[in-house]
Amino acid sequence: MSRIIAGAAGGSPLVSVPGSLTRPTTDRVKEALFSRLDAFDVIAGARVLDLYAGSGSLGVESGSRGAGSVDLVEFDAKASAVCQRNADLVNTVTRRKVVSVHRSKVESFLDRTAEAARWDLVFLDPPYPLDEPALAAVLAKLVPHLGEGAVVVVERSSRSPEPAWPEGMERFAEKKYGETRLWFAEPGVEAAEGVDAVDGVDLEVGD
């Protein structure tokens, strides 16, 4: 059973999505990922976006570890319901609504998001069948919504090629863990220069 590893809700078991349509990040990979993110010092107070959230494991882990806000985006009805249960766990422990769930397709969510909305940490763990052009299109939609110094983490099969990074986003690290490979990217210089810090932005999207 997957669990929240650390933070306010550390040790709490997570609800898993029934069936085999989702591919949860293993605790081993999650622990290694968050160890690296802690070293980057990007979690505390961060605005976090978890796309293709599945059970919401990565997003709620961030919320447990002190993120300022977390948005989980998941279209599948069963997975979205699981996201809500895991979000409720963290929100109860932290005594504030840190994690919000949006039932939406990722592309639609980004298209409807307010232009000024920015995130500091973004997770993308798309289903393996999602092809590379579709992933590249999502990454391009994400670029205008990256805060200064943002970190983007893309989780793919170790057999998948490196994502096609759009203009305004650059890969700075990658790491393989068995069948999983994590790609780390950040805003390019031109994108970073065009970003103003925005707090408390309404997303203007439906749940």
Describe this structure in words.
The chain has 207 residues and is of the alpha/beta class. 30% of the residues lie in helices and 25% in strands. The protein contains six helices and seven strands, in the order αβαβαβαβαβββα. Strands 3-2-1-4-5-7-6 form a seven-stranded mixed β-sheet. Strand 2, helix 3 and strand 3 form a beta-alpha-beta unit. The longest helix is centred in the middle third of the chain and has 18 residues. About 4% of the residues have low confidence.
Helix and strand topology:
Layout (H helix, E strand, L loop, with lengths): L26 H14 L6 E5 L5 H8 L4 E6 L2 H18 L4 E5 L2 H7 L6 E6 L7 H11 L3 E12 L11 E9 L2 E8 L1 H5 L14
Parallel strand pairs: 1-2, 1-4, 2-3, 4-5
Antiparallel strand pairs: 5-7, 6-7
Helix pairs in contact: 2-3
Give a short synopsis of this structure:
It is built from 6 helices and 7 strands. It has helices at residues 27-40, 57-64, 77-94, 106-112, 132-142, 189-193; strands at 47-51, 69-74, 99-103, 119-124, 146-157, 169-177, 180-187.
